[in-house]
Amino acid sequence: MAVIPGTKPTRAVLISLKKRVKVAQMGHNLLKMKRDGLMIEFFEVLTQARTIRQELVEDFIRAQQSLNMAKATEGALAIKSVAFALQKEPAVELESRNIMGVVVPKITADSVQKQMFERGYGIIGTSAAIDEAAEAYESLVDKIITAAEVETALIKLVEDIDATKRRVNALEFKVIPDINDTVRFIGFALEEMERDNLVKLKMLKGKSQRAEKAAEAEKLAAKKAALEGSGTEPLGPGSGKSKGFPKTEAA
Predict the structure, then answer these.
(1) Is residue 196 situated within a structural domain?
(2) Contact 62/138 with Cβ under 8 angstroms?
(3) Hey, is 104 helix, strand or coil?
(4) Which of 6, 27, 84, 129 could lock onto 70 through a cystine, CB 3.0 to 4.6 A?
(5) What pTM, to 2 d.p., does this model score?
(6) Number of structural domains, the chain?
(7) Residue 100: closest CA among 153, 46, 55, 21
């Protein structure tokens, strides 16, 4: 039996512990519901993460192939000059959203995928291979941002699920059993104290009764002594003598 150290076996502590175990059980049920909800959200986000990861790999392969084709067509120097012609860089905004009490990031990007005339380089001096490579890498960057948001949410959910599991296990296997053991201990201690008090009361009652009997016996003895001193005897049962008449001698 694991009793909480320093617990005093009193009725006030017993009432407090009973309230505490009810609160702990309510918290345990709520945490279990939260854990189950987080697990459902985790598997949904995991499915999204797997899909996005696969799409990300495919986009990366396609972007690399497009870049290699553009290098083969225009040359590496032309690719570098086109890359330096970028006028507006993508803007990334980081916000937050709540999933079952877990704060996860929400990433939004602006100006990632651009129109042909927004890329900064001349349309006439470049070929379609460069346009395809630029478009492929813009799609890749957009997919990277989405993957970062989903995978970060996945990591946050895993961390909170682990923390919730630890709390649930602590309440289920440590806190609630210890409180219940302490409640039983205090109950046993109070019952033992009641039995001791009952025994003490019986002893005091018996002592009081014996004292009363002794006092009554002393009173009877004193009364008998007083009657014998006055020359009279108390009549016993079945005697034919009258009380208070002295004996007379025969003539």
Answers:
(1) no
(2) no
(3) strand
(4) 129
(5) 0.66
(6) 1
(7) 153
